[in-house]
Amino acid sequence: MPSVSANGVSIEYETLGDPSNPSILLVMGLGANMRLWPSALCEKLAAAGFHVVRMDNRDAGRSTQLDFLGTPNIPKEAIKYLLRLPIHSPYSLDDMAADTAEFIDALGLVKPHVIGASMGGMIVQNLAALFPERISTMTSVMSTTGSRKLPKPERRAFKALLSPPAKPGDYESSVRHLMFLLRVIGSRTHPSPEAELRAFCERHVSQGSNPAGAARQILAIASAGDRTKTVAKIRVPSLVLHGDEDPLLRPPCGADTARVIREAGGSVKHVVVKGMGHDLPTVLHDELVGHIVEHIKSQGSDSFIRVGSAGLMPGDDSNKGV
Fold first, then answer.
1. Per-residue pLDDT reduced to its tens digit, 56-111
2. Is the pLDDT of residue 318 over 60?
3. CA separation for the pair 189, 100 (Å, rounded)
4. What percent of the chain has pLDDT over 70?
5. Are the C-beta atoms of 225 and 123 separated by less than 8 Å?
6. Domain segments of the chain: what residues?
């Protein structure tokens, strides 16, 4: 797959659809690479008239791994976070937003529509606040402002997120660990069949999995703390999608994101997706694409080419995940 240099790191990416169509840029979350965007969902977005680009963040997948920065002691940093002591991260969410802005420039994307999931939602929120001229719209999926007033994750979900594979670096151990994590944080209404989930996790691990990189990303999130003031700067048209079954970033996290943007004078729509956990279940792809297309279409003809039935018809259900 191709890669480009952006903000001092190499970013690996993949495209789908007609490059002459408006672009959608997909940014994934903590420790995850582009393969956690289900291919079936990407194909539906492309069929709806978009040029779809998915990327690996720094320290994820096949983008630059910053192992020379060391591996953080997460239990120690968690105690500091609980005690509200300063946390020093080797890089920040703002750095990751700058990566994304320079990636947009390097690819020559013309004001793409950016969609971020989980930590990727935080990245695109910061992108929209700091580099609004680079993008057309922002969609934040299962993400948060980071306010300490919000409900904490369910204990089991948070523990699963922070736990490393039994054998870090081992392929089978990494696959089994990801399967376990997605079971814990994913939809309870729409669980993946075992074989489907395993195939999905195998594709992700094959793209690249680095627990040390995920630990550095955790510090980027923790050191950012409450990002309400940053989110309040967002003025690009925004959509907030959040599942009502999310055990990791609870539903009020999405509501708070939308509230902050709205009360600061921004344009935002908030949608609670029934039956969605901290994942993107196959059965909900049509609904998610529908919300995204409607949001983009509402911004005018310059932002949208067409909505063909191909983008909203049931398609390949072979991919499901976070």
1. 999 999 999 999 999 999 889 988 988 889 999 999 999 999 999 999 999 999 99
2. no
3. 33
4. 93
5. no
6. 3-311
Look up the CATH architecture of domain 3-311: 3-Layer(aba) Sandwich (3.40)
In this structure, what token pair is assigned to residue 44? 């539906």
Task: Please write down the HEC assignment for all residues of the chain.
Answer: CCEEEECCEEEEEEEECCCCCCEEEEECCCCCCHHHCCHHHHHHHHHCCCEEEEECCCCCCCCCCCHHHCCCCHHHHHHHHHCCCCCCCCCCHHHHHHHHHHHHHHHCCCCCEEEEECHHHHHHHHHHHHCHHHCCEEEEECCCCCCCCCCCCCHHHHHHHHCCCCCCCCHHHHHHHHHHHHHHHCCCCCCCCHHHHHHHHHHHHHHCCCHHHHHHHHHHHHHHCCCHHHHCCCCCCEEEEEECCCCCCCHHHHHHHHHHHHHCCCCEEEEEECCCCCCECHHHHHHHHHHHHHHHHCCCHHHCCCCCHHHCCCCCCCCCEC
